[in-house]
Design brief:
single chain; 123 residues; alpha+beta; six-stranded mixed sheet; two-stranded antiparallel sheet; 8 strands; Nuclear transport factor 2 family protein; NTF2-like_dom_sf; SnoaL-like
């Protein structure tokens, strides 16, 4: 993972680890009391996250990180994920850090973004 204290680089390293299907690096980056939520409201713990949410990343073609904004122990990242089949989606994630470990991620998603316009996503 990235150098201590550089939370934007930790986030970039996490995205690279996801793309490389490097679960060990992602697990190491998460605090033991890690929590994960989406608009569906799960608020799940670390073991449940890896049991329910982790899957092989071979379907991902690339991540396009649009912006990372860090304010102390909190950060937002907005990105576009492009699948190998050409489909894409856009998310914003809110990170909370405990030192250099990620203690919480809240994911916000909605329409995708293409050519400067919002594009409705089917569920």
């Amino acid at each position: 993972m990235a150098a201590a204290g550089n939370r934007a680089e930790i986030i970039r390293s996490l995205f690279a680890a996801y793309l490389a299907n490097d679960r060990a690096s992602v697990e190491a980056a998460f605090a033991e009391d890690f929590r994960f939520s989406t608009p569906y409201g799960e608020n799940i713990d670390k073991p449940t996250y890896f049991a329910k949410c982790w899957r092989d990343s071979g379907w991902i073609g690339r991540h396009e990180i649009e912006r990372i904004m860090v304010d102390g122990v909190e950060a937002f990242v907005t990105y576009r994920c492009v699948a190998r089949d050409g489909k894409s989606f856009r998310n914003t994630e809110f990170f909370v850090f405990d030192g250099d470990k990620v203690s919480r991620i809240d994911v916000y998603f909605g329409p995708s973004h293409q050519d400067g316009e919002l594009v409705r996503q089917d569920r």
